[in-house]
């Protein structure tokens, strides 16, 4: 029995020393110390040993087990240290390198321009009001003094759902809905998406955004309109900005005007940006037509008002000197990262 235990020990030592990894070492442990291992088989054979010899044989078996276990643990510690050292060499991290930056999204040029316009008018005491993009023909046209035979209602210009429902061509219907509520005075702007049957090019799109404003109160005059828009232009384009009003026609305002501002690139001297004129057109405006007030339930003899409308994309194009409107919608990351 003693010789057999010596043979098992020598065999175990040899195989432990030849183990080149933790997996192989575990296989050796199972082969000698597992439930079906060689040393365990010796213990199971203790019943065949003479009673007076069992204590001596039992001690020899335990000594052999302890010797094998100690050698396995020492070898395991050495192999783990070697693996850890190899891993540290292969997975070395240079902590002096700059960290990888997380790319965080930011606001679109349209959003930046809209927030700037809203800030200006809210500072003047206006409220921001929104309305439906799918609108009744009545609110989009008739209530704005645009009769059934008006060219603007041609299907070549307007997306019709049916004969009574359209995709709104302007945000003016929001103004009509507010006037119908009868809560006067009104000081509001109505930003939102609008739709027109236009071909896509550098300055046109079938879907774009407008910001329209409305003031209705007693004793409102064209002077109030001019002062409001002059202050808006100064805050948006700079303190030295001047405005110029040119006569125009809109069905829902009378009198009406187009508004130009001095070129913020050359200060009105004339340059490539303003095509040498020194002026840039930015919006349309006018005094609310008495018939529009009357159709909305407001007495034009007691109340008056003014309205204006500006294209959000036009402000973004001018403010950031973008020469092609399509860039705003193509989602080109190289373009958007500039803002």
Automatic annotation (TrEMBL):
Assigned EC number: 6.1.1.20
Keyword presence, Ligase: yes
Domain of life (superkingdom): Bacteria
Originating species: Petralouisia muris
Protein name (database record): Phenylalanine--tRNA ligase subunit alpha
Protein keywords: Ligase
């Amino acid at each position: 029995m003693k010789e057999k235990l010596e043979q098992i020990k020598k065999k175990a030592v040899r195989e432990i020393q030849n183990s080149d990894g933790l997996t192989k070492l575990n296989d050796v442990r199972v082969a000698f110390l597992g439930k079906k291992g060689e040393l365990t088989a010796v213990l199971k054979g203790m019943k065949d040993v003479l009673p007076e010899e069992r204590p001596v044989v039992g001690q020899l078996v335990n000594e052999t087990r302890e010797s094998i276990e100690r050698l396995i643990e020492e070898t395991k510690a050495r192999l783990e240290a070697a693996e850890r050292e190899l891993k540290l060499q292969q997975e070395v991290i240079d902590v002096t390198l700059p960290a990888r930056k997380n790319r965080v999204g930011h606001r679109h040029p349209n959003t930046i321009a809209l927030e700037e316009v809203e800030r200006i008018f809210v500072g003047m005491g206006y409220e921001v009001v929104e309305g439906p993009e799918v609108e009744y023909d009545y609110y989009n046209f008739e209530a704005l003094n645009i009769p059934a035979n008006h060219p603007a209602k041609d299907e070549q210009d307007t997306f019709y759902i049916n004969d009574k429902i359209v995709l709104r061509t302007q945000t003016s219907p929001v103004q009509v809905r507010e006037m119908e509520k009868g809560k006067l005075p009104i000081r509001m702007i109505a930003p939102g998406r609008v739709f027109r049957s236009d071909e896509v090019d550098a300055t046109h799109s079938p879907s774009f955004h407008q910001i329209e404003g409305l003031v209705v109160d007693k004793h409102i005059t064209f002077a109030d309109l001019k002062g409001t828009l002059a202050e808006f232009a100064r805050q948006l384009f700079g303190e030295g900005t001047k405005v110029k009003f040119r006569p125009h026609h809109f069905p829902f305002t009378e009198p009406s005007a187009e508004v130009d501002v001095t070129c913020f690139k050359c200060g009105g001297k004339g340059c490539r940006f303003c095509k040498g004129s020194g002026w840039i057109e930015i919006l349309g405006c006018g005094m609310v037509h008495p018939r529009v007030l009357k159709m909305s339930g407001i007495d034009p003899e007691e109340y008056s008002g003014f309205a204006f409308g500006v294209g959000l994309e036009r402000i973004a194009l001018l403010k950031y000197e973008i020469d092609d409107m399509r860039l705003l919608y193509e989602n080109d990351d190289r373009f958007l990262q500039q803002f």
